[in-house]
Design a protein that fits this description.
This protein has about 220 residues and is α+β, with helices and mostly antiparallel strands. It has 2 domains: about 60 residues, no CATH class; about 110 residues. Helix content is about 35%, strand content about 15%. A hairpin with a 2-residue loop joins β3 and β4. α5 runs parallel beside α6 and α7 packs antiparallel against α8. The longest helix has 18 residues. It is elongated, with a radius of gyration of 29 Å.
């Protein structure tokens, strides 16, 4: 490591570098070097270290590496700001570790917003607890004698335009046994993500099922 002041001194014209036998100019420049280039492990970091850390502020992923010079992921307080960059406004619903995963994976989906594939993939990205998503957006048939199945593919009293159904299977082991509050909170977050992702003119019915192995234990 160079002595304090030598980095700036080496970039001065030769007349200044050769006319400092007592090292006074070098010591003076050393003060500026500490501020600009390094802080010797002290806080606040040098300006150069902060500039080198800027790319990490835009990265939601990365390894947990301490130190300004080795910052490889955005601090938690930057995540809501990054979420707005990728048009994910319901970021307050998720803790930092989940929000990092969402931000990292949501950008490629942007071109499919408003589609069934977008909603299916977004739900799976946002909720690791989900094991399966089925979206039924087929219009119900009218009453056709010999074909209509009332309650399955036929509605009495008229059709529901711009309506679809989302059936979600969730893993029961992801929740505390008998923790009704956790399930209700999960359902509320799922509904908010659906409202965020679906076209504004549509209405949706949600069916949420909790599975233990191959058996549904709660709906």
């Amino acid at each position: 490591m160079n002595e304090a002041g030598t980095r700036l001194l080496d970039n001065l014209p030769a007349i200044y570098r050769t006319s400092d036998p007592g090292g006074n100019l070098g010591r003076l420049l050393g003060v500026f070097e500490e501020m600009l280039f390094h802080a010797g492990g002290q806080e606040p970091p040098g300006i150069e270290e902060q500039i080198e850390a800027i790319p990490g502020l835009f990265s939601p992923g990365g390894d947990d590496v301490s130190g300004w010079l080795h910052l490889e992921k955005a601090p938690d307080q930057f995540l809501p700001w990054l979420a707005t960059w990728v048009a994910f406004t319901p970021h307050a619903l998720f803790p930092p570790h989940q929000l990092r995963a969402i931000i990292s994976r949501i950008a490629p989906l942007y071109g499919r917003r408003g589609t069934r594939a977008y909603l299916e993939q977004l739900l799976e990205i946002c909720f690791p607890e989900i094991s399966k998503v089925v979206i039924d957006d087929e219009a119900a048939l009218g009453l056709v004698i010999g074909q209509a199945r009332v309650g399955q593919d036929t509605l009495l009293g008229g059709e529901r335009p711009f309506w679809f159904r989302v059936v979600i299977d969730a893993k029961e082991h992801e929740f505390e046994p008998e923790n009704r509050q956790a399930r209700e909170g999960f359902e509320q977050r799922v509904r908010e993500i659906i409202d965020f992702a679906k076209p504004a003119h549509t209405t949706c019915e949600l069916r949420l099922r909790f599975w233990l192995a191959d058996e549904i234990i709660r709906t």
